[in-house]
Amino acid sequence: MLIQELQVKKELIKGLEDMGFERLTPIQIEVMGPISEGKDVIGQAHTGTGKTAAFAIPVVNNIDTSINKPQCLVLCPTRELAVQVKKEIKNITAHMNIRSTAVYGGAPVVDQIKKIRRGSHIIVGTPGRTIDLIRRKVISFSNIKTVILDEADEMLKMGFREDIETILESANEDIQMLFFSATIPKEVRNLKNKYQNDPIFIKTVTDEVTSSTINQSYYIVKHSKKVEALERILSIYSPKLALVFCNTKRMVDEVAGQMMEKGYNCDKIHGDIKQTTRMDVLSKFNKGVIDVLIATDVAARGLDIKNVEAVINYDVPEKEDYYVHRVGRTGRAGKQGYSFTLSSYRDLERIKSIERYTKKEIRKRNIPTAERVLDVKKEKLVNTVLDYINNEDLTEVDGLLGMLNEAEINMEDAVKALIMMNNNFKAAAYEEDLNDEFRKKSSNSKGKGKGKGKRNQSNPDDYDRYYIQVGKKDKARESDILGAVAGECKISSAEVGKIDIYETFSFFNVVTAERKNILEKMKNVKIKGRSVSAELTRKRK
Ligand code: CDP
Ligand code: MG
Fold first, then answer.
1. Domain total for the chain?
2. Residue 498: what are its φ and ψ, rounded to 5°?
3. pTM over 0.85
C-alpha cells in the first residue's frame, strides 16, 4: 500500500513522504484499521519492520490539537529507545501542530516537566521516570486516550513489570492499550489478559526467524585468537558498517580497546557508558564516521541502526533468540547481509542449538588465511591507485616528484617504499592458521605446540586472564603491573604471562595454579597511585 493511499490527514502524509517512506510495511497495514477504531491491539513483528510508525501513524492522526495535554503515552524499555521513538514521531508530525516529549532518568527532570507543561500531546518515556512524573501530577490521565507498550517483551524481561502495572492501573478502564513486541512470551500474555479489552492479535512474523538474505557462517577459533580472526574477516569482506556483539560489557571494552589500538574506526556501546555518549556513538555509526560498532545485546536492542552490512558474533550468544536479534540487524529491506560467528570448541553445541531454533544452516568456514588477506589487500590497493589516477588531480604532487628525481631515487623503488610505508604488506606478521581444529589435532602431542614466545606464555590455556582498573591514563606500564603482581603475590615474573594495557584498564595473565593466590592478594593494591583489585575474566569455565 502506497503512503499516498493512506486515509489520514494530508500533513501526516507529507511528513511520511519527507521521511522517504514509499509503502507501508505489513504490520503497519494491518494495525492501522483496528487502532484507528480505538480497539486494543497486540502487534507482533520482527525488529526493523516499522512497529514505531505502525502505532504512531494512527495515534498521531487522532490527536486533538485544540487540547494541549498529553493524549498518548508510549512506554519504552531504555532511554535510547525513548529518544528514538520520540524522534520518529517528531519526523512523522513535522508538518502537524503536535508536540512530543521524551522522559527518562539520568536527565534533569525539571527540563522534562517544563516541556510537558508547555503543552505536549505525546509522552514517550521509560517506566521509572514516567511513574515519577505521574506522582508529581505532571502527567495526568485525564486526556490520555492511548497507552502503548513498545518492545513489551524486553520491558518485562528487564524487570519493569511492576512499574508497568502501576502505570496501567492509574489509567481509566476505557483507555486504549496497544502492545508491540517482537515475541509474545507468557509475561506479555499475562499483561494482556489483565489489562486489555478483547484485544486484536496481529502477527506478521513469518516462520522464517532469520531472513534468507543473510549469509550466515561460523568459524572455530580459540578465544585468544578472536581479535585477529575479526581483523581478517573485516579485511576480506570489508563491510561498510559492521556490528560486533559480545556477551559482556567487559568483553566489549576489551575488544574495542584492542581494535582502537590497531587503528580501526570503531567505538562501543554498553550499559555502563553514559547515555549522551551512547547516543553520540550511535549517530557517528549511522553517519559512517565509525565503521565498526562493538556492543552488548541489551545496549543495541530495538535501536534503529541502518545499513549494517555484517554482524559479527564475537561471542556465541547465550540464548537462541539473541542470535536472531543480532543477525536481524543486517540483511534488511531485502539487501544482502552477512553474519559471522566466532565460536570456540566449547560453544559448538550452542551453534547447533541455534541452527535447530532458526531451522537454518549456519555454514562452517575456515578463517581466511593470511595469504588470502594479503591478496585482497593488494587487489584493493591496485583499485585505489586506479581510482586516484582516474579521478584525482595528480599534478598537485608534481613538486614532490621533482624532489624525488633530484635525489636520484628510482621511481620504482619510490613506489615500493611508499607502499611499504602505508600498508602492512608483509605476510610474515600473521602467518598463523587461526582455525582451532589444528590446535585440537596436535594438542595430544602436548608440549611447546605453536605458541609464540611472547612473555614466555607458551600455552594460553594454562593461564587465567585478569582485569584491573588501571591503564595508560594513569601512566601504568607493563613493569608496574608485573611488579605489583609478582611482588604482592610473591610469585616469579615467569609465572606472569601477557600484559595488555589500555586507556583506562589493563589485562594480565598468570598461570592458573596461582589463581587463589592472585584473587586473595591482588585486592586494593596500589598501582600508580590507584587502589585496584584484580578480577578474573570469564575466558573459559
Ligand atoms: O520497531 P521496529 O523494530 O519494528 O522498527 P523501527 O524501529 O520502527 O524501524 C523501522 C525503520 O524503517 C525506521 O527507520 C523507519 O523510519 C523505516 N520505515 C518504516 O518504519 N516504515 C516504512 N513504511 C518505511 C520505512
Ligand atoms: Mg521498535
1. 4
2. -65, 145
3. no
